[in-house]
Amino acid sequence: MTPSIAILIPYFGPWPAWINFFIESCRANGSIDWIVFNDADPPENRAPNVRQERVSFAEYKVLVSDALDIRLTAAEPYKLCDVRPALPLVHADLVRRYDFVGYGDLDVVYGDIRAFYDDDTLSRYDLLSSHAGRVSGHFCLMRNSPEMVGAFREIRGWEKAFERDDYVNFDERAFYNLFRAKRAKLFGSPRPEARCLFREAYSTPGADSGMRWYWQGGRLTNEFYPLHPFMYLHFMSWHSNRWYADQPGVGPVDEAPWALVDDIVQMDWRKARREGFIISRAGFQPIQR
After folding, report:
1. What order do you get walking across the sheet with 127-129 strand by strand?
2. Beta bridge partners of 52
3. HSE-up (13 A, CA, CB side) for residue 169
4. How confident is the model at residue 140 (pLDDT cuts 50, 70, 90)?
5. Residue 164 — φ and ψ, nearest 5°?
C-alpha cells in the first residue's frame, strides 16, 4: 500500500500573491495532503487535498505551548520555523492516520513529489531531506512514528530554543545535527537510530539566477534541463533577501528581484491550470505558444 503523507504549514498574515499557484501545484499531487494554519480568509483557488485550519497567531502560540509544555511568546510568526520538527507532535490528532508527516513553506511550487519519494524510497527511510548538508526547512518528511515524532526532544536545550524570540535555525541545523553530528555533547541522550536520506534537490536558485522554470500539468522543469523533472522549486531568494542582504553585491531586503516587479502574478491561475506557467525573476508568467 502506498504510504500516506501529510504536510503541515503554519503561515500567518495575508496570503502571498502566488498562493493560487502554490495550491494548484498541490492539487496535482492529489495523493498528498496539506494542512495550512492561517488566520486569513480562504484563498480563491481550492483543492480537495489542501485544508485550511483557521486560527490566529496568538491562538496558535497557545496551542503549541500547551502541546509542548513551553511558553512560546515570539512576536513574529517566522519564529514558528524553529518549531517545525515538533509539529507532528503538536498536531498528533490531525495526522494520526498518515504514515509520513512533513513540514514546509508556501514559497514553493511542487512538481511530482511521488516520482522522487516513491513507495520503495519511503520504505527505506525514516527522515527525508532535499538538502545534502542540512534538513530542508522548506520540505522535509519524517516517518509518523513515536521515535521520529519525538526526536526533537533528544536535542539538549530544545525548550529554550523554542522559547527564544529570535529564530535560531533549529529546524534545519539543530535537527540535522541530531542525526548527523558526531559530537555527543550536543545531545542529552544517545542519538535516535533513524534511516536518513539527505539528497540535494537543487531546488533554490540564487537571487541573481535568471533561469526560467516551467510548470505544466504537475511536471516541473527548467530551461537548462527541459528533460529533467524537479521535485519542487523554492523561490525564496526572488521574493526576499532575508538571508542574503549582508552579502557583497546584494541589496537590502526590500530590493529582492520581485520587490522591483510591479505585478508578480501576470496570468490567471485558471489558465495556468490548463496551460502551465513560467516562474522566474520576472514573476509568474504564461508560457508563450
Report:
1. 50-54, 32-38, 5-10, 100-104, 139-143, 127-129, 196-198
2. 36
3. 9
4. very high
5. -65, 150
End-to-end Cα separation, the chain, in angstroms? 40
Could you give the CA distance from residue 260 to residue 184 in angstroms, rounded to a whole number?
Answer: 47
Q: Which domains does the chain have, with CATH numbers?
A: 5-285 (3.90.550)
Rounded Cα distance between 68 and 50, Å, is 26
Per-residue model confidence as pLDDT tens digits over 57-92? 999 999 999 999 999 999 999 999 999 999 999 999
- Give residue for cell 496558535: 60
Strand 219-222 versus strand 213-216 pairing type: antiparallel
What pTM does this model have? 0.92
Total H helices, total E strands in the chain: 11, 13
Spatial separation of the C-alpha atoms in residues 169 and 171, rounded to whole Å = 6
> Quick one: pLDDT at residue 181?
61
